[in-house]
Predict the structure.
Amino acid sequence: MIGRKGIRGQTTTDGERRRRATINDVARLANVSKKTVSRVINQSPFVREDTRERISAIIAEMGFVPDPQARGLAFRRSFLIGMIYDNPTPQYVVNMQQGLLDGMRGSGFELVVHPCDRTTPAFLSEVREFIERQKLFGVVLSPSVSEDKRLPPILHEIACPYIRIASIALDDPEVMVVTNDSVGGAVAARHLLDLGHKRIAHIAGPSTFRSAHERKRGFAAELKDNGVKLADRNVVEGSYSFESGIACAEALLGRANRPTAIFAGNDEMAAGVLMAARKMSLQVPRDLSVVGYDDFQIASRIWPPLTTLHAPTRDIGRIAADQLIRSTSDARGIRYDPNAILPKLVVRESSGPAPKK
Amino acid sequence: MIGRKGIRGQTTTDGERRRRATINDVARLANVSKKTVSRVINQSPFVREDTRERISAIIAEMGFVPDPQARGLAFRRSFLIGMIYDNPTPQYVVNMQQGLLDGMRGSGFELVVHPCDRTTPAFLSEVREFIERQKLFGVVLSPSVSEDKRLPPILHEIACPYIRIASIALDDPEVMVVTNDSVGGAVAARHLLDLGHKRIAHIAGPSTFRSAHERKRGFAAELKDNGVKLADRNVVEGSYSFESGIACAEALLGRANRPTAIFAGNDEMAAGVLMAARKMSLQVPRDLSVVGYDDFQIASRIWPPLTTLHAPTRDIGRIAADQLIRSTSDARGIRYDPNAILPKLVVRESSGPAPKK
DNA sequence: CTGAAAGCGCTTACAG
DNA sequence: CTGAAAGCGCTTACAG
């Protein structure tokens, strides 16, 4: 080799503008065809070991990285992963994105974000168009789009790998990351039972979210198993918003024989419960215990700091990306420990012993 | 034409798997060369009007959309816009993303998100690698990466268009969206002055954020113009975090002759101030007025609801994307009204009249 | 105003 | 195990 001068790597930073190295440059230097370089890039087993090593060394020295666009054109598939979501909570969105990026790091894939509105008529065709146009490598569907029955058939039709994140297994285990929200509901119930509560209420999330149903189901079942009935009149449905939390709490707390504990379907609604309690001059947790769900930042900012269920959203994202990337390789299959992503109770100051009588 | 059967549009949804239409399909149907179709796609003026109309009609009927990957390969530039950020606040990130997507809608561009850590040694080379590898169409830099002096020269070198979002004009106006945080600081000062406060303190953001400096500068200047000095001892520096807000507030409020009003550099720190005040049994706003900055969701969830400055982050994002996309077209130049993106005071319950003596 | 050729940087399908 | 040819779907540079 005639010194670094002949090498066109993108790592050189000496002012001079130079084009990035291509597969042809590598092939020339290695004295092989570009097809052989391609085999090394794509880890084909049909390359002699010493050839592979020689080429790998040259690739490393040049800092050659294959052009994802050219590769994508030839593969008829891009190296972009789409995150498709319609979740209204910023914290969830950011945690999930972070997790996906964690799982994609070093893989050469990039993350394209795609918020959408599941209630519009154009929703399905719009998502399909997006995927086909960008020839996405795959998509991660987060709640509530992940729960839409109409999407998987379309994704199969256009041969787009996907991972669905949802509170229960709605699909083949290999394409699911299950967040087990019913377990979280059960843990919330156990916590309140342990504190001696009997008159317990629940503010559920909107029925359009599967998580709302699962959190309620786990909560009610655990209460029932311990001889405490969650009366219908003590269950009201909110929209996962702060304002709906206030309204639902006012309804529950305005009655005679009001509940001594409320499990809200998420932190935002729990914050609304605290606000309503304050307006009604109820002390939390003396007069009323409150438990939320999510453990977003808000949980520790409000007063009193909120007892809640921590969902490891970022870890879930990392696992989802990992599964998606492996789904098209030989290493397919489920590799994560489902227990690692169970919701966990975080006890703060919004829950306490049931008032005596 | 022999009916819809001969047309390979991606809008057909009749089960049958068919490849997407290409420029060749359009050319064949229109009886022109693909080069002419290409001219129509790229809005070249060198096409006869009736030819253009005929081709446009066929494109519309087929639902033909050019493959961004192939186009990108030929153009040596992708149709991806990168958002590069290191802001710790989820709400900011999501609002900004939403705004960028608003500005990109219908343009054919997609948004690739790229969080990073400005403090690592590999930061610059990593960002450069990302842009070069993906041949990004352009990038939007949000604070605090937008404030890094080292980045623009690199972006120029690799000919990557960019927009910087920052509190002051750090660059050519055409590549900036300026958020005027000093104006927000001044408005906060005026509000507290109007309420009769004299002993006023400030919890600044970290000096690594330009916004921290600008908010403080505007605040101090407005106080000074009205004969109130912001004493050095009444200015402490936090990190924009909740915890730092608590610590700084404890330092300020623990002293004799404590301030009657605190302007915190953001809502998170303001929430910390409220938490500290509560622990010290100070009533807000009776004993202490608190003003924040950002008007994120948290501002209306905590107690008392926070008086704060609303920054129209989503609008700013939309404008940034719009500027970026236009920067490479004939329609370049600044098109937005700078007044439209000024921070605005939102008065809630955390600020009130200064205590009498 | 329009087109035939060559090329963007890779991979597939086919030989050897 | 390795390579020459053709192709992915577009655009640039050059003719006419």
Summary: The mean pLDDT of chain B is 91. The CA atoms of residues 97 and 316 of chain B lie 10 Å apart. Chain B touches chain A through 47 residues (CB under 8 Å).
